[in-house]
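User: Show me a protein chain along with its predicted structure.
Assistant: Here is one chain, sequence first, then C-alpha cells.
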Amino acid sequence: MPGPTLGVEPVEPQSLKKLSFKSLKRALDLFSPIHGHFAPPDPESKKMRISYKVFAEYGTVRNLPSQPTNQVNPSPKDQAQQASAPDKLSLPGPEDSRDMQLEGAQNALVVGPSLQPKRSNDAGLPGKSTIGVLTSVPGSSERNTSTSALMERIPSKWPRPVWRPPWKNYRVISGHLGWVRSIAFDPSNTWFCTGSADRTIKIWDVGSGRLKLTLTGHIEQIRGLAVSKHHTYMFSAGDDKQVKCWDLEQNKVIRSYHGHLSGVYCLALHPTIDILLTGGRDSVCRVWDIRTKTQIHALSGHDNTVCSVFTRPTDPQVVTGSHDTTIKFWDLRYGKTMLTLTHHKKSVRAMTLHPKENCFASASADNIKKFNLPKGEFLHNMLSQQKTIINAMAVNEDGVMATAGDNGSLWFWDWRSGHNFQQAQTIVQPGSLDSEAGIYALSYDITGSRLVTCEADKTIKMWKEDENANPETHPLNFKPPKDIRRF
C-alpha cells in the first residue's frame, strides 16, 4: 500500500539572466547602498591628475620663450636687435656651420637630451642660441633616452665594406658522369679531388684543369672528401655507409671505418690530432682514430641528419650542424655537448670557419648567420637573403665568402659587414636541364684566389676575380641596415 504523498511546493523556473541580475542587485545593496550617485570629487587628486597631464604632454614647450606676435611688421627695436646680432658672431668654421645648419633645420623641433649638440662659448655665443631653440625634454626616462641613442648609433657604426672586384667563371671542367657532390684541395695546392654520384673520385690539376687520376671503390655517391696535411692520405665518405682511407702513394684503399648505420654526409679532419670526424643520416657524428680504425666517440644528441661539421685546434674542437636546425659544440674529451645554438629555423646544411678570425658562419634556407667563438655568441645576420637551400659555403683570408644554392645561385659576401656585393648565376652545360643548375659543393684553393664549384650538370667550374673591374665599372652599392634582426 503506497505511503502518504508529501506536498512539494512548485519551484518557479528562473532564467540565468534573472539570477545574475538578482546576484548583482544583492552585491550592490551590500557594497553601494546609494545607487546612481558618483563618489564625491577629491580636489587634491584632480589637481595631481591635471598637473601630471600638463607635465607629460606639454612639458617640452612650457619653458619656450615667447615669440613676437607681430612678425609682419617688426618694431624698430626688433630690427635693431636683428641688425646687431651678426656683429656679435665670429666667423664660423666648418664645424660651426654644420651646427648652424643643424639648428636651422631643427628650428621648430624639440630635441631630446641624447641628441642635443654641445655648444661651446669660444665663438662668442651665449648658452642659449638666438638662431634655433633647443630645449631638453623634462621627465624623459633614461631608458627611452638610451634606446633612442642606440637606434641612432647602430647604422652609423655599422662597418662599411671595402670595394671588391666581382668574380667570373673562367673554366669549365667535365669528366664526371653524375652529380659532383664533394671537393677537397691538396695542401700543396697542385691538385684537387672531387667525388661524384658516378661513384668515382677524380683528381685534377689545379693550374690546367686536366684529369690526373680516377679512383673507384665506393658503391654509392661520394658526399665527403678530405686530404690530410700530415700524411699522404685522402679520406672519402658516401651514401654506402663507408668511410675509406686512400694511400696516395699506392692509389688504393688501406683502411675502412665501419660503424655508421646509414649514409655519411660530411667529413672533416682535425688540424692537430690524427682523428677523423664523420656525420651522417644516423644523426650521429662519429670520431675515429685514423691509425687504429677504432671509434673514439659517437657524438649523439642531434634529432636528425648531421650534414655539416668542422674542427678547430682548441675548444670547441668539434662543431656540427644538422637537419634538426641546431648547431652543437662538442667537448672532445668526454664526447658531451658543450653548447646548442637554436638560432636557425631550417636545416643547417653548410658551415665555414674563418681562416684568421675566431668566428664562423652557418647557412640555412632562412638566413646566413655569424657566430663568435668559443662562446657561440650571435653576431649578426648577413644583410640579404639568398632565399634558396644553401648547400655549401666557403671563406678565404681576404674576407670574401661564397655561398652556393640549389637553384644555381652563387653569391659573394663581404665577411666583415655582411654586404652581398655580387650575385652570380651558374649556366648549365648545353644539353642539361635548367633544373640541373644546382651547386652542391665549393671550395677555395689554398691561396684563396681561385674558387671551384661542383654542380648538378656534372661539371666543375672554376672562378677568379675580374682583373679588369674597378670601382667605376662596378660601384659599391651599400646601404647600412636600419634594424638588426636577430632571427
